[in-house]
Amino acid sequence: MRRLVPLLLALVISACNGGPPSNASGSQVYTQVCATCHSADFSGGIGPALGPGSNSANQPDEFLITTITHGRGRMPSFRTTLTEQQILDVVSYIREVQSG
What we know:
By secondary structure, the protein is an all-alpha fold.
């Protein structure tokens, strides 16, 4: 339950903010939408780590795109919060960080 409260709070804040501006970079999208659960340094927290050597580094881009778009497990869908381009940009940013 203690871990669920921050997740719900993050989702409410994200929903109230209406998501990042349409011209936000992948880095800005990550900071505003993803870092709350996956941490600013990609080390994980509520959500799994996304940095170099993480499980997501071994997944194809389509896996990340589908996960962000439709959600997976405790992760909610962001299809109404992010545009398709923002999702592609944040995946590109994650890949950039993963490659060092």
